[in-house]
Description:
By secondary structure, this protein is an all-alpha fold. Helices cover 64% and strands 0% of the residues.
Amino acid sequence: MTAVRAALITLSMLSGILLWGAGIYAADAAGDQVVDGYGVVASE
């Protein structure tokens, strides 16, 4: 694996993780319920 390919893979993985975290944060901030990363909602 070349250094350029490794850098592109690393960049895409980090971007995906950041977007996933931003999505969870936005879903949690938008509603009154607590949301985790697997679509499970804590109901009262």
